[in-house]
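Self-study notes.
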Amino acid sequence: MRFAIIGCGLIGAKRLRSLRAEDQVVVVCDPVKERAEALAKQARGADALTDWKQAVARPDVDAVFVSTSNDALAAVTMAAVQAGKHVVVEKPAARNPAELVPVIAEAERRGVCVHVGFNHRYHPAFQQARKLLASGVMGPLMFIRARYGHGGRVGYDKEWRANPEIAGGGELLDQGVHLIDLSRWFLGDFPSVQGHVGTFFWDMPAEDNGFLLLKTAQGQVAWLHATWTEWKNTFSFEIFGKHAKLHIEGLGGSYGVEKLSYYKMKPEMGPPETTIWEYPGEDNSWRLELADFVAAVEAKRPAPITLRDAHAALTIVHQVYAASRAATQG
């Protein structure tokens, strides 16, 4: 498959490294010419451009990685779809749900595969958790409790993620959207949404903390906290069933070794039977995600994670934003 990479920063480089041996990047694009040229060299001779419209329209491109800042995600995806290309667009896929509505309609009309890059689903601990859930050992699921956060760095309040006009929001949209997507993956839709966002530490117009209480129609709950004031990077995702509990911790790197703990309740209750899997190797989620996307394209089936999934997650985020604004103004 022949790819274009739009956005040559950290994520664009990760997408390049996720390619299979038989794939090829034919063009890369970034408004900073030097950054595009640097990634083009890594891509073994890809063309380097600064005009993304020219890149996505090329006839030698089969699929497009959209790895830009949030303000360009929907526009670049729409142009790629209109050019008949398949797309992998990074989460959250847009700044708000309204930006995604015309993109969803156009992608479905043209029959192209548009996958949203919620790569956390492809981490080995989550893949194993899904297998355990499918086996029935968990019993009916009751609730999820999850935390995700980091502490930023010097100057973080001046970066694009701290600018709502570019990012669309703050930490709830940045890392929180991963927690929402994972919770939807295990529990389904959340018709009941409550939450609060606040800026507690950073001097910025975007929130540095987001708190959510989500409920399914069956009464299952997701209790989520995303934060930019976590001075030791943290990832913790707990899934509670009537027969067992799963706890996923760490994502590798500064978040610590990725680990899945399975706590099986005994008939007599008391201390559970415990099984622990650790995954100390490199993060292979990007390669697994790409393989899943390519398989969907070749089979002409819907994307593994669709624009409608992204729209559902964005809708939850912006419901909380609206509620928090109303509470402040009140």
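Second protein, same conventions, sequence then structure:
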Amino acid sequence: MSAGSGAVVFDCDGLLLDTERCWTRAETELFQSFGRVFGREDKRALIGTSREAGGRVLERLLGQPGRARELGDALYELVFAEVGRGASPLPGAVELLRELRGRRPLGVASNSPRALLAAALEGAGLTDAFDVTLGGDEVREPKPAPDIYLLACELLGAEPSASIGLEDSPIGAAAARAAGLFVIGIPTLPELTIDADLVAGSLAESSVRKQLGLS
């Protein structure tokens, strides 16, 4: 599949914006509050999770049964503070959005809650770059369920089968694939295995631009 009339739907954290640094600092602080060291395996387990799913992962990683909601809320408070200090667009993001604008319907589908997503996009100056933005708390089931991608395509007036989803995590890629989109994977961590139709190192790579009909 290549360029056409379908939509282009982006994840946000770790794909458009360098918010994973914000998440890592927040996760590290949370782990330290429990006397734990936040490591690479912990990061892999948390990347791409929703607030609720992340809470359940934290419950297991921190050995705190029955505290999933509390832990998820605590992490998001820390992340809000970090995002408030600013998160920069990742390489190729701004240029890609500028070139796609007016050519294809553009959306963001993030597992982050609406408030956090809005804050991140506003801080990066990308609020007006999209036709539709959706947070994980705006659908019945967050990623890896296909709900958020299906709703994004519906709101953008596009068929999922004609659309492209861009993701940095296995959880996000699974959601886009389940919704029937062509999937471009840009792994946040090099060792992550993403089930995607195209895998690239960054949004600036020529293979991504070609798939989006820009070169």
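Instructor comment on the second fold: The beta strands are 8-10, 106-109, 132-134, 164-167, 182-185, 198-199.
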